[in-house]
Structures are given as structure tokens and as C-alpha cells.
Specification:
Distance between the termini: 73 Å
Strand content: 5-15%
Strand order of the largest sheet: 3-1-4-2-11
Shape: elongated
Number of strands: 13
Largest sheet: 5 strands, mixed
């Protein structure tokens, strides 16, 4: 197997990430092999079948460019890479120490300990720095292995010679020439270690080339439980890079990661709500590569369904709209290239749509998952049609039903499919209302339990308050907008502050509810402090140089009764604001909420 690794006949599928064992694990592995103890099973896939992945040589090998592998290594990368570098390479092993610092090591075996049946084999395996000098306290060298003669004097055999018969023979002659009694030691060492290593059998499962791609991916995930979780994006990256037809036509491999990074950077620069991505695409926030692929799959399978129905009118079994893992793995590169620009444009529209709903920042986005069907719907309707007032209002209603009805918090694949099918038919063809609108409901008791950003509805009400023209109480000349949100450091802040509750000895159950919170700048929040509303409103009038009536008008933009605040009447404030917020929710959802009237628990 190591010969095949060296020749490039065994390579890695490119979705495998570079990973190497630390020094201690390599020493333990070498002890296992020299004792002929069982080693874990390796697994390869014969190339040339349906599952085509871009391949790369194992780390540390020198393989001629363009070498086509016969097998792809699915399981055993760490073991075979470590064994190749330690036993077959003429360079020190790239590894890491106990503190995870990169280091280079040569591996030796102490002959005397190796032939001693009572000795621990782990102690016989020695790890030596790249300069072959073992140092002790104060940097003093206590073992020099910089020459063959020095190695033989110490009785330390370099394990990277074990498969090179000529080099081993030369080393042996130098070793035994030092003393006659070394012949017996060498004979025992030859039998117990060298012959054992050279005859070691690696258990191998070899999958035939007919194995399907999704089966390969499933197998890889199951056997690599100790590694980094594999995702669909990495699998498709390797698949697309291995597309020979694309490479021949364009003179280069297709890089999915570069294509996605370019799209995400463009979207991030114009739509901060969609998050960011770092230079090597390893860390991304907000909109993810999986979201992007799922959106493309939804569009592709929807179009496939429509084409089938056009060719087979009245068919009861058209292909399904879907964005499951299997759909993504079987997404053809041609379809990706055709749809990716359209979907990117649709996400740019989504970013602007969210801004129109006053969702400006990634942390204030109620559901990231809901962007997938929204972008797919926008792609299928077309950006121009999405600007039609009736269609835009319908999309806004569908969006807020999903947010305030909290329908995108669990498993979403099925809802993705229904929404794409139903919303497009509803807005384009005049079909029935989609299930997301029909199923959405909002109960008054839920309003009292919305206390943190963990809830989509909490963030939704915050956005709706700003959308309806909430004005910061220290900035009388303009309402809160995307332009001033960050500069003013606007956030969700309490109307009756915590200190007021503590002084009143009041029940704090309602203190943290969204009913007692609104969108205010940090400057306004500081002016509020821990004061009663009747006190801080007077301070705000002075600070903003406005009249009490003007400030009352600004308070009204938050759906708050100024009179209740000026009277420090929390019960009246809470009851009145809960009703106003329910009306706000009803306008956004286009349907009645479930109210409890006089039965509302005021705590």
C-alpha cells in the first residue's frame, strides 16, 4: 500500500481535509505495526465510476502532476500518511508536539529494547528532532544521531530505511562491525521488527467503481467519526473540480469555493444582514454555502417539475421539488453554472427586501433559514416582478407569517418545498394562500413570553416597530433607519427600567417582555438610566430641546401611551401597549391574533 501511495495510485478525494497525527500518536502507531498488532481497516474506492472526485496525493508524497489514481482513500488517511512519512519517506515527518506546535521528527527504534521481550515496545520507539540531536536540560546534546556511525553506536535504527533493502544492508554492516555479539542481536531484530513490518497486512475494504456518489459520501461520514464533519459543499467542490469536460473546455478546474466566496463577498458588501465570509471560506456567518446550494436545488427541481408537467399534462406523478442532501450531491455543474448568477441576484434582492422590512443586521435576522425559500421564490418570479407592489406586499405578508408564527424554527426542508411551490402559484397564478400563511397564528400569551433574541417573533416585533416609523427620543428630526441604526447604536431597550421595578418592589415577570421594550439609541438609554418615566421624560425634553407635546408624539411612534409613562402607571402602559403590539402583528400577518382580553395576566 505504501508503494501505491508513493506512486500516486492511491490518492485522497479532495473533500478530505489535510490532517496529521501528533508525535505521540505516530509513535504509538509504529509500536503497533512493529508488534504486528491489529490495525484499523482502511477503505478505498476504485476510480472511473459515477462518483468522480478531484484527487490529490497524500501529504508528504511526491507524485508527478497529472497522475491519475487507481483508488481513492476514504478511510485511513491519518494512518497511511503517518506510516508513509515515518517508514517510506527520506524527509522528516511533519507533525505536532504535545502543545500542538508544528514540529519535524525522525523515528527510530532502540534495537536493544526491541529484542528484549520484557521491554515496553512504546519505549523502544524514539522520536528525534529534524537535526537528529536529542537534547536534555540547558540544551545539552545527550544523543547524536547525525551519521550512520553515530546511529549504530547508539543502536538506534532509522525506521525510514525499513523498506530499502540496500540501505538496511549497509546500516547492518556498520552496526555489526562494532562487535561480534551484535550478529545475534541483529538476527533477532531482523526477525522481530524488520520482517514484521515488511510483512504487515493492512485490512482493506475496496469499494467497486460502481458505488454511487451518495453511498460514498454516507460511508465516508460513518467511518470518519473522529474527524471533521464532512459537508455537502466540500463534496461538491471536489466533484466539480473533477469534471473533466469543464476542465477541457475552460482550461482549468471549476472551483466551487472560489465561486461561492466571490458571490458571498459581493452580497456581504451590499447587504450586511447576509453576514460575512473570511478569505479562505472556512468561516462564514449569516447566509451559508449550504443555504446557497439549497436555493439552487429548489429552483432547479421546480423548473424540472414544470418541464415535466408541460410535456406530460395531467400527470399524477411529476418529479418533486426538493433540496435534500441527495439533490445537492446530484446537482449537475452545468445547472449550477446556469443558476448561480440568478440566485446570487435574487439574494441581493432579498437583502434589500429585508432592509425595507427594517431587518438591517445579521444578529437581528429572525430566521436565516427562511431566506432560502425567499431567494428561490424571487429567482422564479424574477426580480422585476418582485418589485410589483401587489407581489411585494404578498411576499411581505408570507414573510411575517413565517416569522411571527415561528414556523421556521424546526426541520425546514419540507416547508421550503411547500413554500416555493405554493407562494409562486399564489402570487403568479392566483392560487390559494400558501400553508405558511394559513397555518400561522399568534396568541396574546406569546407576547408576554417574548423576552430575548432567542425568539424570531421577538426580533420580528423589534423590526416592525422601526418599520412603522419609530423615532429615537433624543433625535427628533428623523426616524430610525439603516443609515443611523449603527451610528446611534440602536438596540432593544426597556421602557420601565429594571431599577424602577426594584424600587417599587414590583413583580418583574413582565419587565423583560417585549411589551416593555422598544428600539432606542444608547444615548437615550443612558438618559433613561434607572429613573421612573416621569423623571427621564423631563430630562429627555431638556436634552433634545423639544416640547413635551413633541416628545409625546415621538413616544407614540413606538405604540406607547405617553400618558401612562408620565403617570408612571406600568399596568396601564402594559395593557395598552400589548393591545397595540397585537394590532401591529395583525397588520403584518394580515390576519387576526388570538386575544385574551380581560383575561390577560398582569402579574
Amino acid at each position: 500500500m505504501l508503494e501505491d501511495v508513493a506512486a500516486g495510485k492511491i490518492q485522497l478525494p479532495d473533500f478530505q481535509r489535510q490532517w496529521k497525527w501528533d508525535d505521540d500518536r505516530i509513535r504509538a502507531l509504529l509500536a503497533t505495526v512493529t508488534l504486528d498488532y491489529p490495525l484499523g481497516v482502511a477503505m478505498t474506492l476504485d476510480t472511473g465510476g459515477e462518483a468522480q472526485f478531484r484527487a490529490r496525493p497524500l501529504y508528504g508524497t511526491v507524485v508527478a502532476p497529472g497522475t491519475v489514481p487507481e483508488q481513492l482513500l476514504l478511510d485511513g488517511q491519518q494512518r497511511l500518511t503517518s506510516l508513509f512519512q515515518a517508514l517510506r519517506s527520506d524527509r522528516p515527518v511533519e507533525t505536532s508536539d504535545a502543545r500542538n506546535k508544528p514540529t519535524q521528527r525522525w523515528y527510530y527504534i532502540d534495537i536493544a529494547l526491541a529484542v528484549d521481550e520484557k521491554a515496553d515496545r512504546d519505549e523502544a520507539i524514539r522520536s528525534v528532532p529534524a537535526d537528529r540531536l536529542l537534547r536534555g536540560a540547558f540544551g545539552r546534546t545527550h544523543l547524536d544521531l547525525t551519521s550512520r556511525e553515530a546511529e549504530c553506536r547508539a543502536g538506534f535504527f532509522p525506521l525510514n530505511l525499513v523498506f530499502d533493502a540496500d540501505a538496511t544492508g549497509r546500516w547492518q554492516r556498520t552496526y555489526v562491525s562494532a562487535s561480534e555479539d551484535r550478529w545475534d542481536i541483529w538476527s533477532a531484530f531482523q526477525a522481530r521488527v524488520i520482517d514484521t513490518v515488511k510483512g504487515f497486512k493492512v485490512p482493506l475494504i475496496r469499494l467497486p467503481r460502481e458505488t454511487q456518489k451518495d453511498a460514498v459520501c454516507s460511508v465516508f461520514e460513518r467511518v470518519n467519526t473522529g474527524g471533521v464533519v464532512l459537508n455537502v459543499f466540500e463534496l461538491l467542490t471536489a466533484t466539480y473540480a473533477g469534471d473533466d469536460r469543464y476542465s477541457r473546455e475552460h482550461g482549468r478546474d471549476f472551483s466551487l469555493s472560489e465561486d461561492w466566496r466571490s458571490a458571498k463577498q459581493m452580497l456581504s458588501s451590499s447587504c450586511p444582514v447576509l453576514g460575512s465570509i473570511d478569505a479562505d471560506s472556512r468561516h462564514e456567518t449569516g447566509l451559508t454555502s449550504l443555504d446557497f446550494l439549497q436555493t439552487i436545488a429548489l429552483v432547479q427541481t421546480w423548473e424540472r417539475k414544470q418541464q415535466f408537467l408541460a410535456a406530460n399534462p395531467g400527470s399524477a406523478n411529476p418529479p418533486a421539488v426538493s433540496c435534500k442532501r441527495r439533490d445537492l450531491l446530484h446537482l449537475p455543474l452545468d445547472d449550477y453554472c446556469a443558476l448561480a448568477p440568478k440566485v446570487t441576484s435574487a439574494f441581493a434582492w432579498v437583502g434589500k427586501f429585508l432592509a425595507s422590512q427594517h431587518v438591517f443586521k445579521e444578529r437581528d435576522l429572525p430566521y436565516g433559514s427562511q431566506l432560502v425559500p425567499l431567494a428561490a421564490i424571487a429567482t422564479l418570479l424574477g426580480r422585476e416582478n418582485c418589485e410589483d407592489p401587489a407581489i411585494r406586499d404578498g411576499l411581505a405578508r408570507w414573510y411575517w407569517c413565517g416569522v411571527l408564527g415561528e414556523l421556521y424554527g424546526g426541520v425546514t426542508d419540507t416547508r421550503f418545498v411547500r413554500d416555493v411551490d405554493q407562494v409562486v402559484a399564489w402570487l403568479r397564478d392566483g392560487g390559494p394562500e400558501p400553508d405558511t400563511i394559513a397555518e400561522a397564528s399568534f396568541q396574546e400569551q406569546r407576547l408576554h413570553r417574548l423576552t430575548s433574541r432567542n425568539s424570531a417573533a421577538y426580533k420580528g416585533i423589534y423590526a416592525l416597530l422601526m418599520k412603522e416609523g419609530a423615532a429615537d427620543w433624543l433625535h427628533p428630526d428623523e426616524t430610525i433607519s439603516e443609515q443611523n441604526l449603527i451610528g446611534w447604536n440602536v438596540d432593544i431597550r426597556q421602557v420601565f427600567p429594571k431599577a424602577w421595578f426594584e424600587r417599587q418592589g414590583a413583580d418583574g415577570a413582565r419587565m423583560t417582555s417585549i411589551v416593555n421594550k422598544t428600539a432606542l439609541s444608547s444615548e437615550t438609554h443612558q438618559s433613561v438610566g434607572g429613573n421612573a418615566p416621569s423623571v427621564y421624560l423631563v430630562a429627555l425634553e431638556r436634552a433634545a430641546a423639544i416640547s413635551g407635546d413633541w416628545l409625546d408624539d415621538m413616544i407614540e411612534t413606538h405604540h406607547i401611551s405617553p400618558k401612562a409613562l408620565r403617570d408612571d402607571d406600568f399596568d396601564s402602559f402594559y395593557r395598552d401597549r400589548a393591545g397595540r403590539l397585537l394590532s401591529l402583528v395583525e397588520r403584518a400577518m394580515g390576519k387576526a391574533t388570538v386575544r385574551e382580553g380581560a383575561d390577560v395576566d398582569l402579574g
